[in-house]
Specification:
Pfam family, one: Cation_ATPase_N
EC number: 7.6.2.16
Structural class: alpha+beta
Largest sheet: 12 strands, mixed
Distance between the termini: 66 Å
Number of helices: 38
Enzyme class: translocase
Shape: globular
Radius of gyration: 37 Å
Helix content: 40-55%
Membrane topology: Multi-pass membrane protein
Number of strands: 42
Family: Belongs to the cation transport ATPase (P-type) (TC 3.A.3) family. Type V subfamily.
Strand content: 15-25%
């Protein structure tokens, strides 16, 4: 067959995969069946573990269009294989969004495409429901998503809903009236049941999956071998341990499935009302919804069972499940471009772009509003796992593997142990053949050496440290849903912080206002609720320009809006449901001053007050609202003062944006200077503007007018200055991180100068450091993209109150604005989201250089935060992300260690969640991560040495055709190894962060040096004991009548042996060599446990771990007590010599390890001549390169210009602007 072109599914997406087609091959199936029978089922296991081998062994390549099986491989660094069976579905058409019936060419007025032209005709011609099938559709399911064959791309593709390639006008004109029953059934065949099904696997299924794990298969093989070799007690102990391990694992896995199932299924099935094509309303289960259905949102609210776009009415929604933000959001209906073509431009609908009009699955609709009896309708655009909630659940069900050097190195280490086992395997066979040992014994003993070298308890031992760390984190209020990430947190060397609610307090306080009159700033005023301002347009703007609403009588909404509204002390009243049902949306919300604010109310009686309110009541009605948009950075309302004919437009938002939309003659000349003064001091500044609308604008015209028509030619009114205070613990935490050489970066949606000010206040940027602002401009009017470099003015110099923060461990370079300004200083880059987007697109070569010293990233959108985390990871940083969960979900998931400070359900997207909303959890998590990582290294090294020590012992005993006994193996593995390992992992984390990080992998010079040196020491002392015992004057091959001890002991021992030796010692276990090696090796396990159980600077010392100390001395007592029936009596002087050997061994081991810690790295560097070696991490290598780059950092008032597109992508040139 010719090699066909490589095909992909989910092309250019995060879950992109290669796809190959295969057909079942009968002769290959027969061969595999024979192989499975001949191998005793082992081949079947191998094919179960390796899906690509399974498919290739049983199938032959075929064209994708006609294949029976597909083989998928991810295109990321993991290259994971999956296989899926292709199924066939009868259908009337290939596209669910198109009319499947070729007979019907006409579409009913405003209806979505359907089988019959009307529902009445459909019901009349009932026999037409069973139309002949015209197509057979091929599809397969992978990770809860169906992929259908697409002829146009000649590959499999996901069937999209109405969230892609559907224009806003089409949503209103073609899809808004609902589907007929026939079209609904046709679409349901493609989209399936609308549910996010988290199936809890049965106990049996989970058991089979767990038992077929390679680790347990190896244990099963070992147990069978040990039983064959008559090690019954030891085999029984391992079986009991394995059963306990399997049961606990099953319990944990099932518990996680049940928790996720309960979270998803809590409100997943509800009864909903949908509109059918003939204007009828039908009540169905939410599981029957398909894209194109028009559902009615009940007035008392509901949990959304799908993603839907609002067609009419408004909804107040709690989106905490998705965003982590508990503040209710007002959703308004999607404008219809075809009704008012001049007002609203037609564009393709997107749930992200039009999220103000989209109700997301899983979010809670608290209440709805409708007018003149019009029902609140929403069009279903996505269902099931395609919804925002479904995608979140999929990311939990099918997480990406954790790529960490420790785990990769662990497999290499195990592989090296297998190689060592191979040598032992060959040695055993050769030695046994030379000594004419029976074939059965040769097979058992040679296989036994493999089970000794590769420890079965290794995975459990490795997990112990992580489990204990997880428990310690839980005690300090940090919850973890991804335990494997704890180790990775030990490597974090950069942490990104959100600003508002993370570094600073969540709420804002009103510092003051600064009004503008006659294009001049007045003096700042502390209060906005004074009598003189009561009827001013400035206060009217503060009273009306917000998205506040009343829920059960309580005012709620954005915290900034709340603070602003509370500052003026006004009252907000909303129309009741009865009023809105009877009237049009003329004045749904009214605001007015409270009685205490009215100047006349101070001395008036109650009766006079009533007359005053009737005659001179001052109220403002909010006629229309243009909600706040993070893209536009502003919001606007149209309002009318009661009794006045003309309406007013009020606008608030980012000062730079508001000023650009105002008449220039109303904006003060010193606007930029005043704004800069406030933002440099860290204030949050909001600008207000006003415009008196023309009298010809009627109520109905206002409802349809475009936003752009209103938001222009405004009068600039002034500034509101809000204070966002730093959290008390922020400076101290950042100081701790900097002392530990951990970089800190601020990623915020706030103003850049405000962010720089906060960065200086909290110590992220030191007062003497330079801040370089990168202002990137996209290509325009034939000009290439460019970056203008500005140096932000340095604030006040260091004061005594400034925290003393050490510079991070990255080479620092001389930065100077002029030749006179020559001082060693650090520099930081700052940029906003727009500049970051331009740099990513047009200056790819600059991205690594900018993120190396980028400290402040302002006005960043949620997806840009994720892109920044990826850019940092691309230069080999281990990135942590700490945010409040509101806009940080993507970045929290992408980072190596994401910590959410929100306890809401959005934290399910983050590996870690802190119960207390404080960044003090970050150093705690890193300390625990470092402790867990070092514990993993200790345990791995100890388990490796345990295997090698036992391997040496058994190999030496095999040379005299002996072995360790059943009880000896049992004691070593249970009493020493398991007890010591599981208590060794209990050492708590060190009390403070240090500048040094633990190594990230096992394959590193110091670690290998440590392990190899201890192996040589153990080998030397065991060999010494083995050969020295043979040189003793009393030595002879041991028999039950041997009397090497003194006479009294010899008699007692001899009589005891005569009484017990009823069975011949087949394995020749009782001998002087066995006893000597058992004592020496048993103490060697304890010696290496001490040597490898390092404390400072990452863990507490061993003597503070009481459980470990108790276990350790218990083992010493048991070994010294000579309590084992399989040992023989040796003379006291030999016991003393064994003690001397053990003490010498301990002394040499500890001394070697200490020497290795102190000078091992220097020795290895000099030995291999790598003192000047290039750093492995890309960011360190880049920092060294930039030290000798005369063009970096860019000089002030210069421009970096992208080259024309015809030249190489991503290249740039520096142009100095005079």
């Amino acid at each position: 067959m010719e090699k066909e072109e490589k095909k992909y599914v989910n092309k250019a997406e995060e879950d992109e995969m290669e796809i190959y087609g295969y057909d079942l091959c009968r002769w290959k199936l027969v061969l595999v069946t024979v192989g499975v029978i001949c191998s005793g089922g082992f081949l079947l296991l191998l094919l179960y573990w390796m899906p690509q081998w399974r498919v290739k062994a049983t199938c032959r390549r075929a064209a994708l269009k006609d294949c029976q099986v597909v083989l998928l491989r991810t295109t990321d660094e993991f290259k994971i294989w999956f296989c899926a069976k292709v199924r066939i579905m009868p259908s009337l058409g290939a596209n669910p969004l198109q009319n499947p019936n070729p007979i019907v060419h006409k579409v009913s007025n405003g209806h979505a495409v359907h089988f019959s032209e009307s529902a009445a005709e459909e019901n009349k011609n009932d026999s037409r429901k069973h139309l002949p099938v015209s197509k057979l559709i091929r599809y397969f399911t992978h990770h809860s998503v169906k992929y259908f064959w697409n002829d146009s791309v000649q590959s499999f593709d996901v069937v999209r809903g109405l969230d892609e390639s559907t224009f806003c006008s089409a949503i209103h004109n073609e899809h808004s009236t609902g589907l007929t029953k026939g079209m609904h059934d046709y679409r349901k065949a493609f989209y399936g049941v609308n549910e996010i099904a988290v199936k809890v696997p049965s106990i049996f299924k989970l058991l089979v999956k767990e038992v077929l794990n390679p680790f347990y298969i190896f244990q099963l093989f070992s147990v069978i071998l040990w039983i064959t070799d008559e090690y019954h007690y030891y085999a029984l102990a391992i079986v009991i341990m394995s059963v306990i391990s399997i049961v606990s694992s099953l319990y944990t896995i099932r518990k996680q499935y049940v928790m996720l199932h309960d979270m998803v299924a809590a409100h997943s099935i509800v009864r909903v009302s949908v509109c059918r094509g003939n204007q009828e309303i039908e009540e169905i289960l939410s599981t029957d919804l398909v894209p194109g259905d028009t559902m009615l949102i009940p007035s008392n609210g509901t949990i959304m069972p799908c993603d839907a776009v609002l067609l009419s009415g408004t909804c107040i929604v709690n989106e905490s499940m998705l965003t982590g933000e508990s503040v209710p959001v007002t959703k308004i209906n999607l404008p219809n471009p075809s009704e008012y073509p001049k007002a609203v431009g037609d564009e393709i609908y997107s749930p992200e772009v039009h999220k103000r009009h989209t109700l997301f699955c899983g979010t809670n609709v608290i209440q709805t509003r409708f007018y003149t009896g019009e029902l609140v309708k929403a069009l279903v655009v996505r269902t099931g796992f395609s919804t925002a909630k479904g995608q979140l659940v999929r990311s939990i069900l099918y997480p990406k593997p954790t790529d960490f050097k420790l785990y990769r190195d662990a497999y290499l280490f195990l592989l090296s142990l297998v190689v060592v086992a191979g040598f032992g395997f060959l040695y055993t066979i050769v030695n046994s053949i030379l000594n004419e040992v029976p074939a059965r014994t040769i097979i058992i003993e040679s296989l036994d050496i493999i089970t000794i070298t590769v420890p079965p308890a290794l995975p459990a031992a490795m997990t112990a440290g992580i489990v204990y760390a997880q428990r310690r984190l839980k005690k300090i209020g940090i919850f973890c849903i991804s335990p494997q990430r704890i180790n990775i947190c030990g490597q974090l060397n950069l942490v990104c912080f959100d600003k508002t609610g993370t570094l600073t307090e969540d709420g804002l306080d009103l510092w003051g206002i600064q009004r503008v009159e006659n294009a001049r700033f007045l003096l700042p005023e502390e209060r906005a609720c004074s009598e003189s301002l009561l009827r001013s347009e400035f206060v009217a703007c503060m009273a009306t320009c917000h998205s506040l609403t009343k829920i059960e009588g309580v005012l709620s909404g954005d915290p900034l809006d709340l603070k602003m509204f509370e500052a003026i002390g006004w009252i907000l009243e909303e129309a009741t449901e009865e009023e809105t049902a009877l009237h049009n949306r003329i004045m749904p919300t009214v605001v007015r001053p409270s009685k205490q604010l009215s100047p006349e109310s101070k001395q008036a009686t109650d009766q006079e007050m009533e007359l005053f309110e009737l005659s001179t009541g001052y109220e403002i009605g909010i006629v229309r609202q243009f909600p706040f948009s993070s893209v536009l950075q502003r919001m606007c309302v149209i309002a009318r003062v009661l009794g006045e004919k003309r309406m007013d437009a009020y606008m608030k938002g980012a000062p730079e944006v508001i000023a650009s939309l105002c008449k220039q003659e109303t904006v003060p000349v010193d606007f930029e200077r005043v704004l800069e003064d406030y933002t440099k001091q860290g204030f949050r500044v909001i600008a207000l503007a006003h415009r008196k609308l023309e009298s010809k604008l009627t109520w109905h015209k206002v409802q349809t007018i475009s936003r752009d028509a209103i938001e222009s030619n405004m009068d600039f009114m002034g500034l509101i200055i809000m204070q966002n205070k730093l959290k008390q613990e922020t400076p101290a935490v950042l100081e701790d991180l900097h002392k530990a050489n951990i970089r800190t970066v601020m990623v915020t949606g706030d103003n850049m100068l405000t962010a720089i000010s906060v960065a200086r206040d909290c110590g992220m940027i030191l007062p003497q450091d330079k801040v370089i602002i990168a202002e990137a401009l996209p290509p325009k009017d034939g000009q290439a993209a460019r970056i203008n470099w500005h140096y932000a003015d340095t604030l006040a110099k260091c004061t005594s109150s400034s925290p003393a923060i050490n510079s991070e461990d990255i080479p620092v370079k001389l930065v100077h604005e002029s030749l006179e300004d020559l001082q060693m200083t650090k520099y930081h880059f700052a940029m906003n989201g727009k500049s970051f987007a331009v740099i990513l697109e047009h200056f790819q070569d600059l991205v690594p250089k900018l993120v190396l010293h980028g400290t402040v990233f302002a006005r960043m959108a949620p997806d840009q935060k994720t892109q920044l985390v990826e850019a940092l990871q691309n230069v080999d940083y281990y990135v942590g992300m700490c945010g409040d969960g509101a806009n940080d979900c993507g970045a929290l998931k992408r980072a190596h260690g994401g910590i959410s400070l929100s306890e809401l359900e959005a934290s399910v997207a983050s590996p870690f969640t802190s119960r207390t909303p404080s960044i003090s959890c970050v150093p705690k998590l890193i300390r625990e991560g470092r402790a867990a990582l070092v514990t993993s290294f200790c345990v791995f090294k100890f388990m490796a040495l345990y295997s090698i020590i036992q391997y040496i012992t058994v190999t030496l005993l095999y040379s005299i055709l002996s072995n360790l006994g059943d009880f000896q193996f049992l004691f070593i593995d249970l009493a020493i190894i398991l007890v010591v390992v599981f208590t060794m992992s209990l050492n708590p984390a060190w009390t403070e962060l240090v500048a040094r990080r633990p190594p990230s992998g096992l394959i590193s010079g110091p670690l290998l040096c440590s392990v190899l040196s201890q192996i040589i020491i153990c080998l030397a002392f065991q060999t010494l004991g083995f050969f020295w015992v043979k040189q003793q004057s009393w030595y002879e091959p041991w028999t039950p009548d041997s009397d090497a001890c003194n006479v009294l002991d010899a008699q007692n021992t001899s009589s005891a042996h005569h009484g017990n030796e009823t069975v011949h010692d087949e394995h020749y276990i009782k001998n002087y060599e066995n006893t000597t090696l058992f004592f020496i090796s048993s103490f060697q396990y304890l010696i290496v446990a001490i040597v490898f159980s390092k404390g400072k600077p990452f863990r507490q010392p061993c003597y503070k771990n009481l459980f470990w100390m108790c276990a350790y001395f218990t083992c010493v007592f048991l070994i010294s007590g000579n309590l084992f029936p399989q040992l023989v009596c040796v003379p006291p002087e030999w016991r003393l010599r064994i003690v001397i050997i053990v003490i010498l061994n301990a002394f040499v081991s500890v001394l070697t390890e200490e020497a290795g810690d102190r000078c091992g790295v220097c020795f290895l560097s000099s030995l291999f001549g790598c003192r000047e070696k290039t750093p492995k991490a890309k960011y360190m290598h880049l920092a060294q390169e930039l030290l000798v780059d005369p063009e970096w950092p860019p000089k002030p008032r210069t421009t970096t210009e992208a080259k024309v597109p015809s030249q190489e992508n991503g290249s740039y040139q520096i142009i100095t602007v005079t």
